[in-house]
Amino acid sequence: MGGAWASGVNLYGTVVVLGMMDNFGFIDLPPDLQILASWWVLAIAIFLYLIEFVADKIPVVDSLWDALHTFIRIPAGALLAAGAVSGLDLGLGDEAQTVISLLVGGTIAAGSHFTKAGSRAAINTSPEPVTNSVASVTEDIAVFGALYTVVFHPVVFFVLLAVFVLLLVWLVPKIWRFIGDVFGNARHPAAAYGQARAQHGGANSGQFGKISLSGTRGKHQTAQE
């Protein structure tokens, strides 16, 4: 579950950490995940991680990267979860055990991925580029911290995972609603950023009406004046 969550945020960093931990004797990966400890796999994962490290800090490029990795991170998270229970006898039968682990792992990876992707898309509506770099570094630290915690302090990780699920239920709809207001109602997202923020968080949000398509005031406001 820890690997599935981390892969939804940064798959290549997750592979590097798990593979290195196995090679240096901190963990023993299950048989179906031993491939992650291969130095060929680690070399490719490090190369892709470096590409993502750069792409993840460039506005718009990071969102395009996230969109592409929707089809990579989620299946990978499901496979990591299934591989983690390989060889275990949970009394469910091999097929049921595999299906359940795939569903749980894929769901967790999807939750962390869409939280990351939605947050990045919302950040990209702001004209300044610094926030992308801050968010990217924070995500990497969160991935490495989560994997360290799940290995050495698993109880703490499960508590944090429960908190994440609660935040997910509350935060993700707000993020995507905000993005919809900006990109769905304006040709110039940067110009509409302040209006969208005011609509969702401002005390006088009712007076803004629809976001102007040209970044100018709406007709109803002109008529009132």
UniProtKB/TrEMBL annotation:
Residues 202-225 are annotated as: Disordered. InterPro entries: DUF4126. It comes from the Bacteria. The keyword Phosphoprotein does not apply. It holds the Pfam family DUF4126. The keyword Transmembrane helix applies. The chain crosses the membrane at residues 37-55, 151-172. Keywords: Membrane, Transmembrane, Transmembrane helix. Residues 1-174 form the DUF4126 domain. This is DUF4126 domain-containing protein.
